[in-house]
Fold this protein.
Amino acid sequence: MLRLLHIEFIKLWNNRVSRILIISYFVLLTSIALVAAIKFDIGPIKFHLAEQGIFNFPYIWHFNTFVTAFFKLFLAIVIVSMMANEYSNKTIKQNLIDGLSKKEFVLSKFLTVISFSLISTLFVFVVSMVLGLIYSDYNELSIIFSDLEFLLAFFVKLMGFFSFCLFLGILVKRSAFALGFLILWQVFEGFVRGMLRWKVFDGDTTDLVMGFFPLNAMWKLIDEPFSRLGAVQSVADQIGEKFEMDYGVHWYEILIVLGWTFLFVYFSYVLLKRRDL
Amino acid sequence: MRQVSINLLKISPILEKILTVNNLTKKFGYLTAVKDLSFSIEKGNVYGILGPNGSGKSTTLGIVLNVVNRSSGEFSWFNGNTSTHEALKKVGAIIERPNFYPYMTAIQNLKLVCKIKEVSDDKIEEKLALVGLLDRKNSKFRTYSLGMKQRLAIASALLNDPEILILDEPTNGLDPQGIHQIREIIKKVASQGTTILLASHLLDEVEKVCSHVVILRKGQKLYSGRVDGLMASHGFFELKSGNTDSLLAFLKSNPSFSKVTTNGNGLITAFLSEEMNSEVLNRTLMEKGIVLSHLVKRKESLEEQFLALTKNEAK
């Protein structure tokens, strides 16, 4: 397993573009800390974002995992191109001839996906922990370590998304087209949602059905955290509006994304196995 | 000392089969690229797979190298004791164009190959020296010329000191100097006792290097065996005489000749059915009063054999 990871590491790290993208991704993950620096001090209006409660435990787990998940697009490019380049350079052929089995080949890519997801999760954990310890109003251990399921959801979300990218890379064989396909798929899911809601189901059933589509399932893993913010809640209270939302991470949502992850990796393997190179 | 032990291995009485191919067939849609092909490769010989373009050479190699799926039939490496991808770690192969990561240097690329083949990377410098690329070892692959790329591919294929080296059209697209360099490397490797399988449509290449040959045409095997077995004919005479008629009469009545043909300008070609040297023929003809103006004894080249073989089958 370490051998496969090492092989993939050599391929990625020696590629300047991948290296720059990977480094920028992790810099961006850290940059969430910069949000803390947002501070307005214009005469009577004093606003310091970090003190609005976004860095309070355990809310910070929710907020940070939601926001940093957007940066995954950087790694998506890396993953799609690491797969598609193997085709355009025909190095996949050489790898197989040199004695890598097709299973090992897909596994080495998937292990890379897992590593990226795991390292990202650790990164977010550490950054959030530090920010929380600085700015959080609550510092009891039991509160700090509650709601950690958001980190699990974050990990699963990234892994599922990257596996999708991996599959597209193998399916389309060209990085630009594969990324195009990804966007197209997003549009497609939106279209299906629109059609279902318009013609077939009511709102709740549409949500339920859409929950089974890969990108939607990943999106729903971590709900938007903003309406949960204390400040927003109090404003809503004042205008007599009440948010009744369930922000939790649900086991079936995780299961659906894990299912997709498995299918993407499995179909990557099947596709590779059936193809003549 | 090492040389001695290698030689001992070579004369061991067990005939070790490196690759066995049985009834292999590959169809691409309606096209049958390889049809019911069987052959085997034994340790220590240099094999050639010969055939015109599109005869199924690369497809056959692709199948045994795990990159093309077979339609039916079987193949097994090393008597079938290991899985294909494990076996390939003991094989060195380059097929068609050399494929490496363009953004990596020669050294980095070879280190990666070592990792895949699970061998230590202390032979990299040695192999780069063998193919004459040591001074460019830190240049990126994309800066290499085609000849250098091909030589790097050979170095890469040799990293694990393979049991068998498989080369598919290794000199394709190279300039004469590049072709010469590649052939010298192949000869050097062959002289060290490595089994070689060389696919080519260039006959003189196979003739110069190989001891055994498999000839393919449209995916079917026409011949497989020793190169000198293919050329086992006794050769032929080219004769010219002022007295053409009596010469023809003599040749046709003599059982030593299987076939006699004439062409327009009086040149007679007489194919031998048994061994006879030109001195004997000349003396006999002199005794009969037939004086020759032209006498040459020739053997068919592999090229002529090959063309004859492929032409016969085409009918």
Q: What stands out?
A: The radius of gyration of chain B is 24 Å. Chain B touches chain A at residues 28, 62, 65-69, 83-89, 91, 93, 95, 97, 99-104, 108, 111-113, 115-118, 156 (CB under 8 Å).
